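Q: Could you fold this chain for me?
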Amino acid sequence: MPHLIQEFTDNLADRINHKSLFADFHSALVQKGGVDRKNCKSRAVKLDTFYSEKETFVHLCVALLEGRDEDVLNRIGKALLDVLRRYYFADGEQDKVDITVEIREMNSKLYFKHTGTRIR
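A: Sure. Below is the predicted structure, expressed as structure tokens.
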């Protein structure tokens, strides 16, 4: 389970190899949060309609089941921000792209999953 949803403005669409980025996200979650890699699910959403003064931004929402302490969540957030910075600031355009990471904890009693023949 973590779900990672990356939103990015359409003017960044051709910049990133998302499969590579997602693999780096998953590695960071394994290293910093003790997450099982096979449970990670990532997706990217290109934003065709948006407004920002800078006109370019990336936002990563990370949804995790509750139960990790704040220190672990901080390590995860900082590690994922670093991954995004490596990808989007490779061209030295730090002042042109806003990058944010948000971590959400999901109530495990309200998270439902069907895997194979099991429903949780």
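A (continued): The mean pLDDT is 92.
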